[in-house]
Amino acid sequence: MMFFITKGGIVTMKKKMVSALLCVSMIGSLLAGCGSSSSTDSSADSSEATESTDETTEGAAEETADGDKTTLTITYPDSGDTGENGYMYSWITNTYNSWDKKDSVELDIQPVVANDSDYFTKVQTQMQDASTSPDLFFEDTFQLNTDVAAGYVSDLSSDVEGWEAWNSEFIEALKEGTKGSDGNTYAVPVSTDVRGLWYNKDVFEQAGLGRDWQPETWQDILDACEAIKTNCADDVVPIWFACSNTEAEATSMNTFEMLLYGTGETLVDEETGVWNVSGQGITDSLSFIQTCKENGYIGTLSEVFDASDWEYANKYMSTGKLGMYLNGSWGYADYLSTGSYPMEGYTDDTLSDALGFAQMPKQNGDGYVTMSGGWSWAIANNSDSHDLAFEFLCELMNSDNYITYLVGSGNLATKTGMDSYDEYKNKLYVEEATAMSETAFFRPHNENYSKVSSYIYEMVDTIVRNDTAIEDALSDFTTSVKTAVGEENAQ
Predict the structure, then answer these.
(1) Where would I find the H helices in 6-110?
(2) 11 CB contacts (<8 Å, ≥6 apart)?
(3) What is the CATH number of the domain that holds 386?
(4) pLDDT of residue 147
(5) What gap in Å lies between CA 80 and CA 74, rounded to an integer?
(6) Which pLDDT tens digit goes with each residue over 448-458?
(7) Residue ranges making up the domain that contains 36
(8) Cβ atoms of residues 382 and 126 within 8 Å
(9) What's the whole-model pTM score?
(10) How far is CA 285 from CA 151, 260, 263, 266, 474, in A?
(11) Which neighbouring-strand residues pair with 77?
(12) Where residue 34 falls among pLDDT bands split at 50, 70, 90?
């Protein structure tokens, strides 16, 4: 039996119990999804039958024969234990209250109070059994392909094909983040982030670089580092980036992959599944990191390898002791008056006068690059209400509903047109970050990514920490990847 709370009190029912009448009468409307069309028989008898079914559906949509409603179970992480006061809960319930199916559908909202890792584990366990599986669940795009490979996630390719908003509003580059290794779509992107170079305009002015800066090559970044080291006080750090095994995925994604993808190479060939372990781009990326270390452009090793090294970076940036920080679009929030490191000498209204956000250039001046991640909505394979779950997903992503999530979370939108809402448009740096998202790359759609990522940050760590030669660190990386994925899948 399942128990869930409604405004009327506690209701008890079997999961997704639907009377035969509702099941028959609603099937036509559910298959229509979010605007997809279905073929109909053109005969007069068929038309009469359809009209009869529609009439039955209208009656049954309000209540089933025995008074029961269809139950949609929705799961999402609630690390802050905000419950009904959280923006996720508000987003879901506000959407439901304006949904034309609410009289025939009951929501079982199941926030999971846990960190991301524990949330993933719990949802995976639930999805293994149809009796405990959610219908709709919040999925980190980082985790998506692992869950697809395990058979937990439903393919949405045919659903989104007929969804008008998907074809006209969602940012094309961000759709890639919700695809599996087979090229099919398994989720709908809800939030995104990008990575670039935050820079302190006061430091740059002192270094003779001006207050408006946009590097076009890696050499431009290195030249800026040298100018800061030469012209600013000795305690000013030119650049900061994650480069330790304690920073783990941040080292892999925010640093190494931002460099590698700027060389024109990727980590894996998505068509063949063969991992890149010997490309010149890998060597060049490691050389950039090594150069920054050898020339004294990064912080002291005790700070860089501290488990909370980002705290040093934020402290130095907010006090005019750091030139630039390779980090995500969320970074500015730390420097607001409500953040942990308010920008000294500036207010929230003047923060953009102190802090710039530049795009990360490709290696040799042929454009820019960013890595992107984010959260998405997915439907469990064990859901027995796939069509209904997708229909509610579409309602959640309707702009008038979606804005609740964007304002509450502070994340970047995955669809166009959200700048028509002042509460979104007026966010700091949203214009710069949105422009970056148009050309975003995503981590590989491959179930072995998490393993390979661990070898990446170990490789970067040993080069910076131990002065290990690039060829030796790369040799160890190659051996580890080939062992993990098979020699035939790594070149």
Answers:
(1) 20-31, 44-62, 87-97
(2) 3, 4, 106
(3) 3.40.190.10
(4) 93
(5) 18
(6) 998 999 999 99
(7) 2-189+375-410
(8) no
(9) 0.77
(10) 35, 6, 8, 12, 11
(11) 112
(12) low
